[in-house]
């Protein structure tokens, strides 16, 4: 039996006008299940065809308010989240991303080690790149082994802007999370 297409699991969507461009939000009945920049690798706005636009949906309103505060410099407060797609491994990685606090970063290798997958930095990177809830599941906080800024599905310029907003650009004074 084929899997239910992702967009069919969403009950409402909206578009948030962020300072970094349009951010498409998707919600189930009571959780945020998607947040994608336009354009974003691995996402096409066409995937949301048929999902009703409803910016008054309670979860979407909560997400928009959280984003307003975030872009004003406050800590991002997540609405209830759910992963309606992804393998168990991907979901495990995405849950770990939520644990990277604002103002900090982690490397792919350190994240792999923390998840009990030493040597699994590439697999972590693939899971991170498929994160369906950008910003709220902060994949932009993951950097390369030498703390270099690597790809971001929403674009490297956005990743840099987000890390600058969070004062999380890696420096010698502030070690990355999970690093020894």
TrEMBL record:
E.C. number(s) listed in UniProt: 2.1.1.63
Residue ranges annotated for the Methylguanine DNA methyltransferase ribonuclease-like domain, each copy included: 14-75
Lineage per the UniProt record: Bacteria, Pseudomonadati, Pseudomonadota, Betaproteobacteria, Burkholderiales
Protein name: methylated-DNA--[protein]-cysteine S-methyltransferase
A Gene Ontology biological process term: DNA repair
Catalytic activity of the protein: a 6-O-methyl-2'-deoxyguanosine in DNA + L-cysteinyl-[protein] = S-methyl-L-cysteinyl-[protein] + a 2'-deoxyguanosine in DNA; a 4-O-methyl-thymidine in DNA + L-cysteinyl-[protein] = a thymidine in DNA + S-methyl-L-cysteinyl-[protein]
Pfam families attached to this UniProt entry: DNA_binding_1, Methyltransf_1N
Boundaries of every Methylated-DNA-[protein]-cysteine S-methyltransferase DNA binding domain copy: 88-167
InterPro entries: MethylDNA_cys_MeTrfase_AS, MethylDNA_cys_MeTrfase_DNA-bd, MethylDNA_cys_MeTrfase_DNAb, MethylG_MeTrfase_N, MGMT_N_sf, WH-like_DNA-bd_sf
Signal peptide start-end: none
Keyword terms, alphabetized: DNA damage, DNA repair, Methyltransferase, Transferase
Organism, scientific name: Brachymonas denitrificans DSM 15123
């Amino acid at each position: 039996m084929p899997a239910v297409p992702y967009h069919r699991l969403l009950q409402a969507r909206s578009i948030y006008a962020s300072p970094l461009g349009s951010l498409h939000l998707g919600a189930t009945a009571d959780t945020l299940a998607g947040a994608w920049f336009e354009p974003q690798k691995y996402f096409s706005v066409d995937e949301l065809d048929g999902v009703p636009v409803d910016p008054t949906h309670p979860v979407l309103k909560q997400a928009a308010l959280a984003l307003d505060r975030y872009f004003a410099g406050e800590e991002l407060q997540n609405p209830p989240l759910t992963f309606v797609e992804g393998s168990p491994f991907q979901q495990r990685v995405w849950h770990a991303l939520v644990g990277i606090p604002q103002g900090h970063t982690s490397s792919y290798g350190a994240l792999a080690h923390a998840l009990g997958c030493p040597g699994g930095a590439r697999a972590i990177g693939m899971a991170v790149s498929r994160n369906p809830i950008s910003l709220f599941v902060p994949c932009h906080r993951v950097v390369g082994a030498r703390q270099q800024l690597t790809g971001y599905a929403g674009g490297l310029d956005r990743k840099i802007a987000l890390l600058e907003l969070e004062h999380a650009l890696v420096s010698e004074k502030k070690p990355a999370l999970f690093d020894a």
